[in-house]
Amino acid sequence: MPRTETARTETDKAEPSRTETAGAATSAVLANVQSILAENTTVAGRLAADAGAAASLDALAAGIAAADRVFVLGAGRSGLALRMTAMRLMHLGLVVHVVGDVTTPAITAQDALLAASGSGSTAGIVRAAETAHAAGASVLVLTTAPESPLADLADVTVVLPAAQKQDHGGTLSAQYSGALFEQSVLVVGDAVFHTLWQASGATADDLWPRHANLE
């Protein structure tokens, strides 16, 4: 028995418990949470330090507010981020459509297309922007590439200082494949919504009845 107890003790010392392992993993995840938040704070700081970027953000909000209807378009994770923005704008009472949904109507000169593409060259998004531009609609763009086909079509371009999807150098972000840009799209979308909400004078109770009730 003493030998068995000794063996167990030595094994316990050699192998960390499940609790210790989970704690180490949680610490690593928390460190990455802090790193990701720091990268987003850096993006906000760079935008704040650039008078042109601040003006373009205000112009983006004004363009959304002035449109009869807002159409949003993005591919992949950028598209998911813009869908979240579309939901919030709907809560505010704007008429919003997600490009590609079967109920999305034709865009007109009284409308705005809000598009996001890190590279500014995503083929489907550029084609949609060309169509919107030809129809006379306002084209509002979020991108990392000011010299791109999408930016060339834009009435308002917000250049987000984040890494492009295939920028693997880690200079602007340690995250994988354009994640910082996609997060920035979400944050800017929420900031635009919050700005328009504040300007509207509406309360949270005023917005609440527009939340989905068929879930």
Automatic annotation (TrEMBL):
Residues 1-23 are annotated as: Disordered. Keywords: Isomerase. It comes from the Bacteria. One of its GO terms (molecular function) is isomerase activity. InterPro entries: PHI/rmpB, SIS_dom, SIS_dom_sf. Residues 1-18 have a biased composition (Basic and acidic residues). Belongs to the SIS family. PHI subfamily. This is 6-phospho-3-hexuloisomerase. It comes from Cryobacterium lactosi. The lineage of its organism: Bacteria, Bacillati, Actinomycetota, Actinomycetes, Micrococcales.
